[in-house]
Amino acid sequence: MNKQPSLALLFSQLGLANSPAAIELYVRTHQLTANQNLHDAPFWNKSQRDFLISHLVQDDDWSMWIDELNQQLHMDAYKLQMA
Asked: Which one, of 70, 66, 67, lies nearest residue 33 by Cα?
């Protein structure tokens, strides 16, 4: 059975803890600046970066969740722009 991608499954694919609390903590502690691309973030290793880039380029089922992760990791930057 092939699982539908989700934010929790994306975290799992990236080798990260994927409980709701772990995702919330990760997002809160890994905020990016407004001009920083998700895949250029210093906290990804090569395989994580390759996974993110390849699925964004393919624009497949994962890309929606990668976009969601990108938005969440830029939340503080968006708030600053709105202030």
From this structure: 70
| Residue 67 exposure: Cα atoms within 13 Å on the Cβ side | 8
Domains of the chain, first to last: 7-82 (1.10.10.1130)
Can you give the pTM of this predicted structure? 0.89
Secondary structure of 11-38 in the HEC alphabet?
A: HHHCCCCCCHHHHHHHHHHCCCCCCCCH
The answer to whether 34 touches 77, Cβ cutoff 8 Å, is yes
Q: How many CB atoms lie within 10 A of CB 74?
A: 19
Percent of the chain surpassing pLDDT 70:
98
pLDDT per position as a tens digit, 18-76: 999 999 999 999 999 999 999 999 999 999 999 999 999 999 999 999 999 999 999 99
